[in-house]
Amino acid sequence: MMTLSNTEKKELTKLYSEGFRYLVRNQVGTVEVFVKEPTRTRDNRLTFDIWVEKENPYPIITPEKMKRRKSVDSKRYTFVKWESEPVLIEELIK
């Protein structure tokens, strides 16, 4: 079990209450939360891989998709790595 700072726990609790369920780190180090389960993909327009919704993996970002993902401070959640599977927020805030 990961140990969260108070700031991380408060942030994840708030995000969970907003419907976000998964925490991931992109290949370039940015951290995001997703409502729906994400999967890794290659966006041919970029030079790195990213996480996208598993249900709808085409990497074009639409306003609707933006409601289901959100960036968070990449200096936090250092235990989440690109190589990691998506982390369930519920497990972290229990």
Feature tags:
single chain; 94 residues; alpha+beta
Number of helices: 3
Order of helices and strands: HEEEEHEEH
- The separation of the N and C termini measures 10 Å
**Can you tell me the overall shape?**
globular
**Approximate helicity band:** 10-25%
Which structural class do you get from the secondary structure elements?
A: alpha+beta
Number of strands: 6
**Unreliable sequence segments:** none
Largest sheet: 4 strands, antiparallel
Strand order in space, largest sheet: 5-2-1-6
Rg, Å, rounded: 13 Å
What percent of residues are in strands?
25-35%
Task: Write structural notes for this entry.
With 94 residues, the chain is α+β, with helices and mostly antiparallel strands. It has one domain (6-93). Helix content is 22%, strand content 26%. It is built from 3 helices and 6 strands; from the N terminus they run αββββαββα. The strands form 2 sheets. Strands 5-2-1-6 form a 4-stranded antiparallel β-sheet. The protein has a two-stranded antiparallel ribbon with strand order 3-4. A hairpin with a 6-residue loop joins strand 3 (38-42) and strand 4. The longest helix has 12 residues, at 6-17.
